[in-house]
Amino acid sequence: MPTQRFLIDRYDPADDRAYEQEFSVDYEPGQTVLDCLNIIRWEQDGTLSLRMSCRHAICGSCVVKINGRSGLACQTQVPAAAGRGDPIRIGPQGNQTVIKDLVVDSHKFMEQFERAETWLQPHEEQEPPVREYRQDKDEFDHWQHASTCIHCGACYSDCTVAAVDPKFLGPAALAKAYRFVMDSRDSRKQERLEALSRMHGGIWDCTRCFMCVEACPKDVLPMDAIMELRTEAIKAGVTNNHGTRHHKAFAGGVAKRGRLDEATLPILSAGFGPGAIPEMIGYTPGAIRMLKSRKLIAAARRHGASKEGRREIRRLFDEVADEKHHHDVNREAFGTQYAEALRT
Ligand code: SF4
Ligand code: SF4
Ligand code: FES
């Protein structure tokens, strides 16, 4: 029977003590990380706390960090997690408060679904059908990936934005919001897109780091869902917000000059009119510092890409514009701005 060492992050709330503890487990081939954690707490240390229920990747309760990445302990085979003779490192989910050992307080994660209003809000004027509300198959196929979420929190645990912004809705809630935006039985598509575009922590705050896609055990593709929400928002004319302006200014600058235009990016992102004043005031101290250090002038004078470089950039933009990709926010946003930039 092979033996595997585990290095587990422990936290004892009774005396507010965090420490690491090593265990060795003899395991049968085919056993999972969760099986081994259970062997530890049933046979070696009954004080080890963790969550689990189904043991079949259904309930979503056993997510822990395995060697620093979040995943279902019941779905991870021991050899897949083990390095060459190294202990498997186990820790609690990230971006949430640890209650004890591997158990976290998931309120913050769950509250995001409420903020995103992830429930069906049907058309009130519509006569209720005799039987169920029917869903068109093609439509369902388009968003069914977002409906397979088991609310395990692995994506939220590894999300790089949730790590720095507690108001970020996070990948799971946004993927669920996408599912309702795309459902024709829901009456609030436009309102949802406007709220998700304007709110702090909405669709434009994702940095497209892919961590949620890699962490998700159910192929929900949360980042893709967020990108599709951006596309839907632009298509629906929801463009008068910081995120869309920033996206377009960024792409437009690159398309036009072959580089990021740092001097105009904040102004174009803030937009014009009274609504932009608080944001511009917020930029003032940084702008003064840049002026003093002559960085602002250097940024304004900096040359763009060479002729060949611009040609390559143009080729890349064209490639993106032609791409028949699952989400096409780049075509929506880059395409328009790129065309405008080329005309000027
Ligand atoms: S892609 Fe976006 S939502 Fe997903 S983990 Fe990265 S920042 Fe978070
Ligand atoms: S999107 Fe995936 S990782 Fe995130 S909560 Fe749902 S099933 Fe878990
Ligand atoms: S115990 Fe249910 S998903 Fe792992």
3D architecture notes:
Residues 326-339 have low confidence and may be disordered. Helices cover 44% and strands 11% of the residues. α9 packs across α15 (329-343). A five-stranded mixed β-sheet has the order 2-1-5-3-4. It has a two-stranded antiparallel ribbon with strand order 6-7. The protein starts with a strand and ends with a helix. It is of the alpha+beta class. The structure holds iron/sulfur cluster (2 copies) and FE2/S2 (inorganic) cluster. One iron/sulfur cluster (SF4) binds next to α8 and α9.
Write the layout of secondary structure elements.
Layout: E1 3-12, E2 17-26, H1 33-44, E3 63-66, E4 69-72, H2 78-81, E5 88-91, E6 97-100, E7 103-105, H3 107-115, H4 137-143, H5 154-158, H6 171-181, H7 189-198, H8 211-215, H9 222-235, H10 242-257, H11 265-270, H12 277-292, H13 295-301, H14 307-322, H15 329-343
Parallel strand pairs: 1-5
Antiparallel strand pairs: 1-2, 3-4, 3-5, 6-7
Helix pairs in contact: 3-6, 6-7, 6-9, 7-9, 9-15, 10-14, 10-15, 14-15
Bound molecules: iron/sulfur cluster (2 copies) and FE2/S2 (inorganic) cluster.
